Amino acid sequence: MKKEINENRVAMVKVRMNTADVAAEVKCLKRLIGMRCSNVYDLSHKTYMFKLVNSSGVTESGESEKVLLLMESGVRLHTTAYVRDKSNSPSGFTLKLRKHIRTRRLEDVRQLGYDRIVLFQFGLGTNAHYIILELYAQGNILLTDSEFTVMTLLRSHRDDDKGVAIMSRHRYPTEICRVFERTSALKLHAVLTSQEPDDGEPLKAHKGTTEESNTSKEKHDNRKGGKSAESKKSVGDITRTKQATLKNVLGEALGYGPALSEHIILDAGLVPNTKVSKDGKLDDDKIQMLVQAIEKFEDWLEDIISGERIPEGYILMQKKNLVKEHTLSEPDGSIQIYDEFCPILLNQFKSRENMRFATFDAALDEFYSKIESQRAEQQQKAKEKQVDSRIDTSKCREDNLAYYSLSILSVISRWKNENWKENRVQTLMKEVDRCVKMAELIEYNLEDVDAAILAVRVALAKGMNWEDLARMVKEEKKSGNPVAGLIDKLYLERNCMTLLLSNNLDEMDDDEKTLPVEKVAPIGTV
Prior knowledge:
Helix content: 25-40%
Structural class: alpha+beta
Largest sheet: 5 strands, antiparallel
Number of strands: 17
Strand content: 15-25%
Order of helices and strands: HHEEEEHEEEEEEEHHHHHEEEHHHHHEEE
Number of helices: 13
């Protein structure tokens, strides 16, 4: 049992981005500024793909440069070179994004303070719209106007204690995001001695400062994903109740999380698991070494946030032993799996096997794309194993011929029943798709539909009968009236008509255009 638990711990992979990851990725995405949003797709209810186009023709073939930007609420943000399956019918959230940011120019990409929140600005002035991606706790994706009033979002929540409401038609509180501040020796000394600085300045106990990158235990209303929003204890009180280590104390106090704190402590030549209690204080020499290590890391972080440096990327790998029935082509019966990514090679990982990338964005794309492919392979293997198990069960039953014959008859009967149900389900699904398509066409052409209905109602209100109305529509079509051109057929007995509508909003590329027109019927006129 212990061996299985240890293997599971080793196999855990990093799933969340910390503050340094977000800052590094934002710096990589600055190159997208100036490109226009061509389209938006939903890959799942939390993952969205933005197609950005640079019309200046910078590729070797002379075609417009195209970049696919992936956003997963609460998890990740990066461009991708890998093809992914898109949803056949866009969600309402996707349609809202398309309506307001498609064809708009990306004017800015920035991190709000140094929280795990990224802002994308499309358009300028009063016509600007913002896409806000939250990468902490349960995550969120929001669309706001130029005044940061929320127009639509994935998840609504509120914190009455802080007076914060992340809801539609409410202003997004950008002012509560943390501002990057360098750590002074006085503040560090106060943290380690569980006291406040002599100048009365409170400790840098930011809301939700801990970055729990490798766990899903993040609080619901936590701004950074490590401390409860209801907790009003000082950093010293929190760490003492846990009998915390030096790594945990720095992770909570500085807001960098355990992984970056361990990197800083090792850089100072200290032991991360050193116990920090009320009586056990560090001497001045060790504190000075920590100050220098923190200053070195914050120099790197400040250069990433406001400098010209483009961060590199690293992926850490580990070997995983495979059981015999799952062994692949590796001669030693093991495979390499990705379990960590970082924009700076952390000290605790320097002895491990790693891959280096020119940019952190490329590392993120490789990491998450490989994880997705491995997950798909595991699902396929699980299906194959289930099929093999069923085959083995069937072979065992061959010894009893009578039982086997009855089983075959039962299977045939069940198959016929399931086949009928499947045909029925397919018929109903086709009807649902047809109704959804009609509704989308009406929504895309709402003004034209209203104009056609109004024209018919006005004619009927003047006493015109349906036969005269049909002749009038035919004459108006010949004269080139666009409203009359939408009307396909009138139905006197049902007081409705059929319209010819086209979808001009769904796609922009030639290889993605829909059919020119579709019949939408019936539409009531009275």
